[in-house]
Amino acid sequence: MKQFRSNATDWSWDPVELIRRSIDKLYTWCLIRTYPFAKSGHRVSFHFPCLLQKRLASRIQLGNCITIRSHTWFDIVPEGTEGLKLIIGDNCGLGARNTISARNLIEIGEDVITAASVLISDHNHAYEDIRLPIRVQGITEGGRIRIGQGCWIGHGAAIICSRGELVLGEHCVVAANSVVTRSAPPYSVIAGNPARVIKHYDFGKQRWVMGSARTAEAEPEKVTL
């Protein structure tokens, strides 16, 4: 009896995996060649199915070597600012069931990875008029979101900008199920609802330390008498 090899990188013997990869390649080929993306780099992979509208693809710019897993929704809002609304840099990986809702501009830097079920939205639903159902009140003007190079966004996290600009510095880590509504400096670990910086990398000490860098800078040094 033939024994299958257990090498995890060798999927050629698995017919189900072979079918899935073939479907993803065909799906990606169709999207790249029929949807008018503002830019689409090489080695972009869409896993079937994803949700996006052809007429709004011109507002999306894709870098090189990007993987977008199944059931990710690119919700590009027609109204709002002109030009690009979503920019995804090189070497990014978006997890399954991500929702990226862009009215103004969401920019995802290079080497960013997200887990499953992540929400990134640069606006909210309007709700202020209690006489009307929320569904007919439209959306807020919102702001802009910029996620720096090398960030990692955990499972179920939400990054929401209601106004102004929300910036996550490079190499930030957002913990699972966190709700991020304000900016964070580079090399920070962010957690909670609402999220706050719980740890940062101290280049002076060459290690990760608890608390935010801003808090540490504000504290006076202890003097030993």
How would the blueprint of this fold be written?
Layout: H1 15-34, E1 39-40, E2 44-46, E3 60-62, E4 66-68, E5 73-76, E6 86-88, E7 93-94, E8 99-102, E9 105-108, E10 113-114, E11 119-121, E12 142-147, E13 152-153, E14 158-160, E15 163-168, E16 173-174, E17 179-180, E18 188-192, E19 195-202, E20 207-210, H2 213-218
Parallel strand pairs: 1-3, 2-4, 3-6, 4-7, 5-8, 6-9, 8-11, 9-12, 10-13, 11-14, 12-15, 13-16, 14-17, 16-18
Antiparallel strand pairs: 18-19, 19-20
How would you describe this protein?
With 225 residues, the chain is mostly beta strands. The chain has one domain: Hexapeptide repeat proteins (UDP N-Acetylglucosamine Acyltransferase, domain 1). It contains two helices and 20 strands. The strands form four sheets. It has a six-stranded parallel sheet, with no helix packed on it. It is globular, with a radius of gyration of 21 Å.
Question: Can you tell me the CATH superfamily?
Answer: Hexapeptide repeat proteins
State the CATH topology. UDP N-Acetylglucosamine Acyltransferase, domain 1
How many structural units, i.e. domains?
1
- Assign an overall shape: globular
Distance between the termini: 79 Å
Biggest sheet descriptor = 6 strands, parallel
Number of E-type strands: 20
CATH class type: Mainly Beta
Q: Structural class of the secondary structure composition?
A: mainly beta
- Provide the succession of SSEs: HEEEEEEEEEEEEEEEEEEEEH
Give the rounded overall mean pLDDT: 90
Radius of gyration: 21 Å
- Tell me the CATH architecture: 3 Solenoid
